[in-house]
Amino acid sequence: KVPLVKELYERRKEFDLFIVDHAYNEVVYPFLHQAPFIMVSTPGTDYRQSAVLGNVMNPAYVPSQSLDFSRPYSIWHRFLNTLIHIAFAVYWRNWNIVPQLQKEISAQFPELPPLLELERNMSLALMNTHFSIGIPLPLLPSQVEVGAMHCRPANPLPQELESWITGAGSSGVIYFNLGSFSRGSYMPVQYRDVFLQAFRRLPQRVVWKYEGELKNVPDNVMITNWVPQQDILAHNNVKVFITHCGLLGTQESIYHATPLLGLPIFADQNRNSMFIRNSGVGDFLLWEELTEDVIVNAINDIINNPKYKDNILRKSKLMRDQPVSPTELAVFWTEYVIRHKGAPQLRSPAAQLSWVEFLMLDVIFLLHLTVFFLYFITRRILRVIYAKIFSANDSIKKKRE
Predict the structure, then answer these.
(1) Domain 159-320 belongs to what topology?
(2) Phi/psi at 239 (nearest 5 deg)?
(3) For 288, which DSSP code?
(4) What are 145-179's pLDDT values in tens digits?
(5) Residue 41 in contact with residue 125, Cβ under 8 Å?
(6) Residue 395 pLDDT class (50, 70, 90 cuts)
């Protein structure tokens, strides 16, 4: 109904390409009609998006983003994972998100095909993941891994911050940041006080990104409302990164080889925290179990046990060992889609199949029908042969008698 929206819709063909986020973004689908578009999956592999491209991920080994395990190791994990894969797709497509938006969009743009049909015209998916720090997956040409695209070499730190970090000496520095969404000032008072008391007991200095003012801050703690995160993580005197386990921060820490101590809060952070522990690049704590001793012991373990630094150095080398940078790869494929007018040659024929065709339910039904028919015919033939043989034997017996 907004004139500017109508105007943009009418001008959509003037654009060479649309780049849209993968989640909860069906509202922009009208602008993608008859226009090439790329979807960007910031949390990594999105099995719903992958299915749209014709590559259905196997829940036996591809974990859901909403579950707290990095891989479905047990039968119970696989069972839960399968239910989530199915339920999420049904909820999204057939029950809540898409049906509600479809009703509204059809009222405004009655000439448009269904949203799910528009979605199938996706040219490419850029995924914020990489096999070196995730799960190796069978991918289509239209699925490109560009994980850690935002990671970069370090720049010099501001002088005050550099002096604080180098002034810590051999004890080193702890970097504490709960991200931009889960701001430090939102932390409940009881947890904030526990961290302050724990930091007071440590020989290390602490850089804590905290939006707001704090009282009774220990002398070894610097409070700041903004920090150049990658430049801090790259500093060789930073020993551990206390994080909420956001994927971008986790990738930055691996790229710059700084061990992690996770405090997951919501969404994919539980899964990321399990990855941190299972890959040996750090550990994580649960908020409800936090005490001074728990925090101090976890930090000391990560700093003093060389396995964490060794493991994250190894992961960092794997992440960096690529023929071209993730940024260059993303730029190439973006321009490729533009050059080739949507690059239809990348699209899998599987994307156009119905679920009945994709799962070969019709073929399986036909196979069952064929087996039943063969069984029925064979049974009838054997019965005829059996009847002929025994009727012939009866005739011979009667003649002898």
Answers:
(1) Rossmann fold (3.40.50)
(2) -95, -30
(3) G
(4) 999 999 999 999 999 999 999 999 999 999 999 98
(5) yes
(6) low
